[in-house]
Specification:
elongated; six-stranded mixed beta sheet; alpha+beta; 577 residues; five-stranded antiparallel beta sheet; 15 helices; single chain
Length: 577
């Protein structure tokens, strides 16, 4: 009882724990899902901005590419002397794209590497970064960056004075057109909308962290993979790819996500403490008021099981319900003892009556066949055969009407079968050949009366054809089993057409359904074997194929007390008329 209640408590605590874990998982999945939706909005915004910057660059390039190339060639030929009006045209072309609200952080036109650079910066770039960018843009080989952009369809990531920029460049001859945006500025919308529990960052394809928008969660200085490995136990990392340059990642502190679930955790702890106090008190009450009377009932029931016919009274007064239960058990034991004796007597009488009925169902076959044979002989005036027939019929009837004898020896049954065959030889001269192979050790084994006779009679009924020879083979021998037991194997075969397959299937179906139908004789034998030996596989009917007809196999279990010492001798008898 203690074990069972402990198991129940463990199951309840496990259910609470699993429920808590499931709640945490649901909340985490919900946070991840929300982060993914938020990232989808922000990454789409970044993608749209980069797409606008790229389109502005492409428009300037398409409108000014030839003009800038000619100016560049002239600039080189003239000894690097610039034309103010031509440069102003290019600067105005850049300015036309930089004055709208969706402009990048800067655009430039490089006339010749390390020579002439026309740059226009946006308002978001501070002065120190402008100087560093100007120096970087002047000496950069933009043709290599254009090849990289064209190959991967991405923006190039460049670090200038510890600040990351995204560049897009188009080179035409000695002239390069480009646009750039500071990585921090791509997260401007995110910085306005992010809450204090989240942190967003941009990273390149190689995992370098370009910029972060912090909600005062932490300071990140490593690449993305190292940061996730170090802080993965305390933070949730949700990333979404950005095709132009890398990934955008949302970092959420797990403590802030699960803070609302602390109440459930405290509730589980309180329940555990209360259970540790309440359960022992409940178990003490259960032991005193329930387990003790139950155990006394069990002990009394075991005494009754050992054979005591009276139910012992309780050792002391228990509750009203248990006292009623004790009295009910006393009355029940008395009633069961009476009904048990009565039931045994009824079962014995029922089995005897059932076996007698089965025998009476088999016997009419023999009377009818014998009377038919004698009637046939009288019409043929075969007096000698009639006298022999009457003598054998007398033996036949004497065997059948043995009083209260259900089991006979195999020797007696085989003598009765041979007597029956000889009666049939009188009726069908020159048409019957039979052979019996009886092992001497099996002769004393007792079997149900008329067991072999019934099947031999069926051979004459179904296998005998007028004008053709009927062959009957009966073999009785001993077989041993693997567990040192033994049984008698009885095989009866004829040379008729055998059992039709449809008949065998119908017979098996009727046996399983308990409907004997037109197979009363064989069905009764099957039932008799089942009642006597408590087995359902002692009778097997089959057809031997083209060379032989019906085949009946019967197994009779033999108890160890009746197993003969030697089972090697046998006698073979052959009869033919």
């Amino acid at each position: 009882m203690y074990t069972q209640i402990t198991v129940i408590l463990v199951i309840l605590f496990a259910a609470l724990l699993l429920s808590n874990i499931y709640s945490l998982q649901v909340v985490q999945n919900h946070i991840v899902s929300n982060s993914e939706h938020t990232l989808a909005i922000y990454t789409e915004s970044i993608h749209n901005n980069l797409d606008i910057y790229a389109k502005d660059l492409m428009e300037v390039f398409e409108n000014q590419a030839d003009f800038a190339r000619d100016y560049g060639e002239q600039y080189i030929r003239s000894g690097h002397e610039g034309d103010y009006f031509k440069e102003m045209r290019l600067i105005n072309a850049l300015k036309s794209k930089m004055t709208n609200n969706y402009a990048s952080d800067g655009m430039f036109v490089q006339i010749a590497r390390d020579e002439r650079l026309l740059t226009l910066f946006g308002n978001r770039i501070n002065s120190s970064n402008k100087l560093a960018l100007s120096d970087f843009l002047k000496h950069q080989n933009w043709r290599d960056i254009q090849i990289q952009d064209h190959k991967e369809g991405q923006w190039s990531i460049v670090q200038v004075n510890d600040v990351f920029y995204l560049f897009k460049c188009i080179t035409y001859g000695e002239v390069s057109f480009g646009t750039f945006v500071q990585a921090d500025h791509l997260l401007s919308r995110t910085s306005r909308e992010a809450d204090s529990a989240s942190q967003f960052m941009l990273s390149g394809q190689d995992g370098r962290i370009l910029t972060t928008v912090s909600g005062n969660v932490m300071t990140i200085t490593k690449d993305l993979a190292a940061t996730e490995q170090e802080l993965g136990s305390r933070y949730l990392f949700v990333s979404k790819p950005i095709a132009e340059f890398g990934h955008m990642t949302n970092i959420v502190a797990k403590q802030s996500v699960f803070s609302g679930l602390k109440l459930i955790q405290w509730l589980i702890i309180v329940l555990g403490v209360v259970s540790m106090v309440v359960v022992p008190l409940v178990m003490r009450f259960i032991t005193k008021e329930m387990l003790r009377p139950i155990l006394e009932l069990v002990r009394a029931a075991k005494e009754v099981e050992k054979g005591q016919t009276l139910f012992p009274p309780p050792s002391r007064e228990y509750s009203l319900e248990f006292m009623k239960l004790f009295h009910a058990f006393q009355s029940m034991v008395h009633e069961i003892t009476h009904l048990k004796i009565q039931s045994y007597e009824e079962k014995i009488e029922k089995s005897r009556a059932e076996l007698k009925v089965l025998q009476m169902q088999i016997r009419p076959h023999f009377y009818l066949n014998a009377i038919s044979t004698i009637s046939s002989l009288t019409y043929q005036n075969r007096n000698e055969e009639i006298r022999r027939m009457i003598q054998m019929l007398s033996q036949h009837l004497r065997y059948m009407f043995k009083a209260e004898q259900m089991l006979v020896s195999i020797d007696e049954e085989m003598g009765h079968v041979e007597n029956y065959i000889r009666m049939q030889e009188i009726r069908y001269p020159d048409q019957i050949f039979y052979m019996t192979d009886l092992e001497a050790a099996a002769g004393d084994i007792r079997i149900p009366q008329l067991l072999i006779q019934t099947f031999v009679e069926n051979c004459f009924k179904h296998a005998l054809t007028y004008g053709e020879m009927l062959s009957i083979f009966i073999r009785v021998h001993m077989e041993r089993t693997a567990d040192d037991g033994a049984y008698v194997q009885i095989v009866i075969e004829d040379n008729g057409e055998g059992f039709p397959q449809a008949w065998l299937q119908q017979f098996q179906t009727s046996i399983r359904a308990g409907d004997e139908g037109e197979h009363v004789g064989i069905a009764n034998i099957h039932k008799t074997l089942q009642l006597l030996y408590k087995q359902d596989n002692l009778l097997v009917l089959s057809s031997g194929g083209e060379s032989s007809g019906a085949k009946i196999e019967i197994r009779i279990p033999v108890s160890n007390e009746t197993i003969p010492v030697s089972i090697s001798e046998s006698s073979i008898r052959v009869g033919e008329n």
